[in-house]
Specification:
The chain is mainly alpha-helical. It has six helices and three strands. The chain has a domain of 104 residues: Winged helix-like DNA-binding domain superfamily/Winged helix DNA-binding domain (Arc Repressor Mutant, subunit A, Orthogonal Bundle). The longest helix has 23 residues.
Length: 149
């Protein structure tokens, strides 16, 4: 089972990388993951964003610096709490998430469409159970929000 999931994860990472490269070659998958987190959860403090990514705040700050330089995110300090840095998506960041996710959805739909119908139903159940066990939020098809990375 673990080998099957690892193999499937390689395919999904390849789909992710191709989708990202087709829209925005300068972004890395970890940077895109940060954009997706901001897209799904809204603006976050530096520490909350680092926790979501499971990285040190200094690592998150370096990623944020690159995203701010690419006009994908903004960094602000709330006037009522000067010790906190709040990170938000820009319009360009949101557009990138939407476009990359649309490409990814299209490629995944093509792959899943090549499967027999009976196995597609089983796949849905298995993947929903798998993602619930891993506490990953659903990637609902809403067009602009709650997009999967």
């Amino acid at each position: 089972m673990v080998n099957a999931v690892l193999t499937a994860s390689r395919l999904l990472i390849a789909v992710s990388a191709r989708s990202l490269a087709a829209v925005e070659e300068a972004l890395t998958l970890p940077q895109f993951r940060m954009l997706v987190i901001l897209s799904t959860r809204g603006q976050l403090s530096l520490s909350a964003l680092a926790a979501e990514l499971d990285v040190q705040p200094s690592t998150a700050m370096r990623m944020i610096d690159r995203l701010v330089a690419a006009n994908m995110a903004t960094r602000t300090t709330p006037p009522d709490n000067r010790r906190t840095t709040v990170i938000s998506l820009t319009r360009a960041g949101r557009t990138t998430v939407t476009k990359v996710t649309a490409k990814r959805r299209s490629e995944i739909a093509r792959i899943v469409g090549a499967m027999p119908a009976e196995q597609r139903r089983d796949l849905i159940t298995a993947l929903q159970t798998f993602t619930e066990a891993g506490a990953e939020p659903s990637a609902r098809d809403t067009g602009t929000s709650h997009l999967g990375w």
